[in-house]
Amino acid sequence: MKKAAIYKIDKWNPEREIIKIAAEAIVKGKLVAFPTETVYGLGANALDESAVRGIFSAKGRPCDNPLIVHVANVESAEKIAHTTSKALRLMERFWPGPLTLVMKAKDIVPKATRGGLETVAVRMPAHPVALALIEKSGVPIAAPSANTSGRPSPTDAGVVYDDLGCCVDVILDTGPTDVGVESTVIDVTQEKVVLLRPGGLPVEAIEEFGEEVMLPDELGAGRAEDVKRKSPGTRYRHYAPRCRVVLWREGDDWPLERDEAVGYMGIKRPPLDISEKVILFDSLEHYARGLFMAMRYLEKKGVKVIVADYPVKEGLGLAIRDRLYRASSAEFDENPHDVVK
């Protein structure tokens, strides 16, 4: 059975020989897992349909779930997408960084990469190794998170190997990622910016830049679902450990009876001593960074249920809420993506 070759690489000064090995793999149509500032991505040549299909096969990912295409500069984005003045303004302000723009695709992008859509999701990662790999490869790199589809996203190379070690050719390892949740995805093909997936860039930053952010549901029921399809991570159960996830908000009744097989994670302390398997974070930033790692840790500890603190609806809290909501079996009578205006 094939096993991935893992290369430890300096985040700030990537070794040229290692980047060359990974880039040659991309050019040959192989799969390379690499770090970004958000999570680890499973990369292939975005313009090679056969290579892209390899991503879907390795992850067990539905073929109608579009991929994000990673580029090293704005010029590369303009080669694969019809960029508008609004899109260019946002790129200039927030790239490189955890912001993905959904734009009208050019024909050069295979439909497999786009999930069969007429749009393409594009971003420029803020990570020296990712940028070096894209530049050396000479092609845009399609890359969803480097994990089995539906599982918590990987924030370190060990998780990538555990999930996909037999399917990937090369894994580049720079240690844990900085942000911990995927990029924010916005649709810039509408008159106003539409939030498709909250993520590593707070919505407030986009609004402070002067762009009003809408939710898909504000477009009307007839258009909302079509717009949501343009983003990965919005139509299927995602980010879920093998154990059940239950959401809890401070002030609510505790959702479970006392059970030694319960784990807890969040910022707020649980209202009762449920077990020793409690993971506390001291900020939203740390909660986001450790979210997926905490899920996998508690899963390995054998808990049957994870009770997760459902955080405030601001900053990175919106992205955390989204990931928890999609991973959970509980539902609240509210939209987890509601943006505080």
Automatic annotation (TrEMBL):
<dbReference type="Pfam" id="PF03481">
    <property type="entry name" value="Sua5_C"/>
</dbReference>
<dbReference type="InterPro" id="IPR005145">
    <property type="entry name" value="Sua5_C"/>
</dbReference>
<dbReference type="GO" id="GO:0006450">
    <property type="term" value="P:regulation of translational fidelity"/>
</dbReference>
<feature type="binding site">
    <location>
        <position position="119"/>
    </location>
    <ligand>
        <name>ATP</name>
    </ligand>
</feature>
<dbReference type="GO" id="GO:0003725">
    <property type="term" value="F:double-stranded RNA binding"/>
</dbReference>
<dbReference type="GO" id="GO:0008033">
    <property type="term" value="P:tRNA processing"/>
</dbReference>
<dbReference type="GO" id="GO:0061710">
    <property type="term" value="F:L-threonylcarbamoyladenylate synthase"/>
</dbReference>
<comment type="function">
    <text>Required for the formation of a threonylcarbamoyl group on adenosine at position 37 (t(6)A37) in tRNAs that read codons beginning with adenine.</text>
</comment>
<feature type="binding site">
    <location>
        <position position="145"/>
    </location>
    <ligand>
        <name>ATP</name>
    </ligand>
</feature>
<comment type="similarity">
    <text>Belongs to the SUA5 family.</text>
</comment>
<feature type="binding site">
    <location>
        <position position="183"/>
    </location>
    <ligand>
        <name>L-threonine</name>
    </ligand>
</feature>
<keyword id="KW-0548">Nucleotidyltransferase</keyword>
<dbReference type="GO" id="GO:0005524">
    <property type="term" value="F:ATP binding"/>
</dbReference>
<feature type="binding site">
    <location>
        <position position="123"/>
    </location>
    <ligand>
        <name>L-threonine</name>
    </ligand>
</feature>
<feature type="binding site">
    <location>
        <position position="70"/>
    </location>
    <ligand>
        <name>L-threonine</name>
    </ligand>
</feature>
<feature type="binding site">
    <location>
        <position position="239"/>
    </location>
    <ligand>
        <name>ATP</name>
    </ligand>
</feature>
<dbReference type="Pfam" id="PF01300">
    <property type="entry name" value="Sua5_yciO_yrdC"/>
</dbReference>
<dbReference type="GO" id="GO:0000049">
    <property type="term" value="F:tRNA binding"/>
</dbReference>
<dbReference type="InterPro" id="IPR038385">
    <property type="entry name" value="Sua5/YwlC_C"/>
</dbReference>
<feature type="binding site">
    <location>
        <position position="38"/>
    </location>
    <ligand>
        <name>L-threonine</name>
    </ligand>
</feature>
<keyword id="KW-0963">Cytoplasm</keyword>
<protein>
    <recommendedName>
        <fullName>Threonylcarbamoyl-AMP synthase</fullName>
        <ecNumber>2.7.7.87</ecNumber>
    </recommendedName>
</protein>
<dbReference type="GO" id="GO:0005737">
    <property type="term" value="C:cytoplasm"/>
</dbReference>
<feature type="binding site">
    <location>
        <position position="143"/>
    </location>
    <ligand>
        <name>L-threonine</name>
    </ligand>
</feature>
<keyword id="KW-0819">tRNA processing</keyword>
<dbReference type="InterPro" id="IPR017945">
    <property type="entry name" value="DHBP_synth_RibB-like_a/b_dom"/>
</dbReference>
<keyword id="KW-0547">Nucleotide-binding</keyword>
<feature type="binding site">
    <location>
        <position position="153"/>
    </location>
    <ligand>
        <name>ATP</name>
    </ligand>
</feature>
<feature type="domain" description="YrdC-like">
    <location>
        <begin position="16"/>
        <end position="201"/>
    </location>
</feature>
<feature type="binding site">
    <location>
        <position position="65"/>
    </location>
    <ligand>
        <name>ATP</name>
    </ligand>
</feature>
<dbReference type="InterPro" id="IPR050156">
    <property type="entry name" value="TC-AMP_synthase_SUA5"/>
</dbReference>
<feature type="binding site">
    <location>
        <position position="61"/>
    </location>
    <ligand>
        <name>ATP</name>
    </ligand>
</feature>
<keyword id="KW-0067">ATP-binding</keyword>
<dbReference type="InterPro" id="IPR010923">
    <property type="entry name" value="T(6)A37_SUA5"/>
</dbReference>
<keyword id="KW-0808">Transferase</keyword>
<feature type="binding site">
    <location>
        <position position="197"/>
    </location>
    <ligand>
        <name>ATP</name>
    </ligand>
</feature>
<dbReference type="InterPro" id="IPR006070">
    <property type="entry name" value="Sua5-like_dom"/>
</dbReference>
